[in-house]
Automatic annotation (TrEMBL):
E.C. number: 2.1.1.-
UniProt name for this protein: Ribosomal protein L11 methyltransferase
Entry similarity comment: Belongs to the methyltransferase superfamily. PrmA family.
Reaction(s) catalysed (UniProt annotation): L-lysyl-[protein] + 3 S-adenosyl-L-methionine = N(6),N(6),N(6)-trimethyl-L-lysyl-[protein] + 3 S-adenosyl-L-homocysteine + 3 H(+)
Organism annotation: Pricia antarctica
Keyword entries, A-Z: Cytoplasm, Methyltransferase, Ribonucleoprotein, Ribosomal protein, S-adenosyl-L-methionine, Transferase
Subcellular location: Cytoplasm
Molecular function as annotated in GO: protein methyltransferase activity
Length: 276
């Protein structure tokens, strides 16, 4: 079992500081985040951590925000207690709910049950929320789907619930891989296969739709690979970056034959639909 370091950040005002802090912590190696009314909880594996890690976090030096923090060790087996205390169910467009097993079932078309543990993807973060919105509006019946950077598997699960014939979910993190396996089984989505790895696993497989909620740098690097694995007239949905980065992503997509169709924006984050 891995040991994690939990940072508790108290933030005033919450936005946009919380979003900026999460982005910078993610670049520094933090894996998971839980947002609350006072700020965020952030988690990094102890073996990846050192006491100087926050020196690279620029927003902590900003006079615009009041950010304080504490940190402690937390064993992986104690994660359930942490997220049960902080994880509230959500609804998207009154059509989809994402909840934990101990929450009451929602009367919606798609009721997704997950235990996020150390994985990203509860629907609370803007990027996941917008990707779920895109999936709700897409016709997945009989389609083949790739979910890159799948985290909890929530995007793959909704695509499967909407009729996708085959879904591959891939994440480079072992804990996310194991967690997604559990969540796929919990939601009885037998058409989803979960893999541990990155885009190098793809080979020559072709998909009708690719979902990638990762970060700007990985997306820019992997878009040429996604194109090789996207069928003609296929759709690419991406998120995990700020609105100011949209021109960079769109330029890379255009260079690889993708056409911009639509984007969503929530606070400073965006999700984008491209068609091949």
């Amino acid at each position: 079992m891995s040991t994690y370091i939990e940072y508790s950040f108290q933030i005033k005002p919450l936005q946009p500081a919380s979003d900026i802090l999460i982005a910078e912590l993610g670049e520094a190696g933090f894996e998971s985040f839980v947002e609350n009314d006072e700020g965020i909880l952030a988690y990094i594996q102890k073996e990846e951590w050192n006491k100087q890690i926050l020196e690279t976090i620029r927003i902590l030096q900003s006079a615009q925000f009041d950010i304080s923090h504490t940190f402690k060790e937390i064993a992986q087996e104690n994660w359930n207690e942490t997220w049960e205390h902080n994880f509230n169910p959500i609804q998207i467009d009154n059509r989809c709910a994402v909840r934990a097993p101990f929450h009451t079932k929602f009367d919606v078309d798609y009721d997704i049950v997950i235990e996020p543990k150390m994985s990203f993807g509860t629907g609370h973060h803007e990027t996941t929320h917008m990707m779920l919105q895109f999936i709700l509006d897409h016709d997945f019946r009989g389609k083949s789907v790739l979910d890159m950077g799948s985290g909890t598997g929530v995007l793959a699960i909704l695509a499967a619930m909407k009729g996708a014939a085959h879904v591959d979910a891939i994440d480079i993190d072992n804990w996310c891989y194991l967690n997604a396996m559990e969540n796929v089984a919990r939601n009885d989505c037998s058409q989803i296969n979960v893999y541990e790895g990155d885009a190098s696993l793809l080979g020559n497989i072709k998909y009708d739709c690719i979902l990638a909620n990762i970060n700007r740098n990985i997306l820019v690097g992997d878009i040429p690979i996604y194109i090789q694995n996207l069928r003609e007239n296929g759709t690419l949905y991406v998120s995990g970056f700020y609105a100011e980065d949209l021109p960079i992503l769109s330029k890379k997509c255009a260079e690889n034959g993708l056409k911009f169709e639509k984007n969503l924006q929530k606070n400073h984050w965006v999700a984008v639909k491209y068609v091949f």
